[in-house]
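Blinded run. Sample ID left blank on purpose so nobody reads anything into the name before looking at the predicted structure. Input follows.
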Amino acid sequence: MDVIRKNSVSIVKCALLAAMLLAAAPVLADTVEVRAYLISCHDGDTCDFDLESYHVLLGTFVIRAQRVRLDGLDTPEMDGDCKSERDSAAKAQQKLEGLLKSAVLITVRINTAKPKEKYGRWLGVVLADGRDVAAELINAGLARPYSGGKRAGWCG
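Blinded prediction complete.
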């Protein structure tokens, strides 16, 4: 009877370990893709989302808003150096917000090796109904490709 009980306990332990590993699989991967719900866009490359599974607990409050910087592009700044940059920034923000608000499904793909950039924002590829919104903004002429380093200016 002891042998059967020990084997039963071992089987239960193995099953629990397998369940824990399966549950942790998205965390162990190089990238994780989570469903996102748009809260607002600050400009053409930064939005606040409610990211499923990425809620931060502070005391008894749950903070759902997570700031995400779109990976792979640069857009003009809302407080830019010249009027044309500020106008272009507003157009990029409107286009980005329009793409996201019209989407049935928004997902954010985060590189778990480097999930946040220097300002503490999540760095991710944002997909609206499977389309990369960064590529959409670049193709519309409202953004340019960017992979880090010194950014070129938008004025003159």
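Unblinding after everyone has recorded impressions. Strands lie at 31-41, 46-51, 56-58, 61-63, 65-70, 73-74, 106-111, 122-128, 131-132, 144-145.
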